[in-house]
Amino acid sequence: MRLAALAVTSALAAAAAGPLPPLPLGRLLAPPDRLTLTVAHTGNPHTDGEYWLACDPVDGTHPKADRACARLAELARDGKDPFARAPRDEMCTMADGGPATARVRGTWQGREVDTTFRRRNGCEIKRWNELEPLLPGRSR
After folding, report:
1. For 31-129, which CATH superfamily applies?
2. Is the pTM above the cut of 0.85?
């Protein structure tokens, strides 16, 4: 009898409180945003290595995690895919930005990411620079 009274009281209290807000099911079902970056040949031994980064909340071993997440959030607000490859038909200068490479793997905005960045021509240098500070700036 006591259990039935408790169940009725709980149901009445919940009804009086009103409906609960909807659960963010899309966010619950999507994998968390987490990226692994492998950076090499930058000319700076302090930036070469492997890092991981999570945003919302910010976490990871990335040396500029707060700024990297802020840059990714800015690109998302602008509707840009920071991991898209440069268009094949884009005219690129033949500038050489050095041997630096960065591979980014993981999940971002609910999508799988597996892409490589280089600095071997003007288009790829631009693509890299747009992701600073997620990717390290050019060493001086």
Report:
1. Subtilisin inhibitor-like (3.30.350.10)
2. no
